[in-house]
Amino acid sequence: MPNSMTSTFEERLPAARALASSFPLSESWRLCEDFDKRSYYFNLVTRESSWVSPAGKILEEIISLVHEPPPSPQPFGPGKEVSPLQWAANEYMRRAHHKASRDMLEWTGPYTAEGDGSVYYHHS
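^ thats the sequence. predicted structure below, dont judge the formating
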């Protein structure tokens, strides 16, 4: 049986998704339209496309974590209980940091180009 925090959060999900789609995009993302005039998002670096905004995807990941029970004992120490939403946000950031650390291992550099002195990195 879902708790009241989860139910309230799910009821607010459509408004939260709309708000997330209004967040500015990072330099690598573009808002595009397909042939049927439907909006989608495209990442110039990764070549990823999505119907959901990048901020919306983060929101969905956090929401999915709200449904996971926090580990016992609480990771913040005895007597420091946190709400499911606080735990989910912290867990999302922990997982994102871990993924970014792993992804960094695939890059080498910086290298300086001869001639114009441009700096570049290589993804292996």
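The first strand starts at residue 29 and ends at 33.
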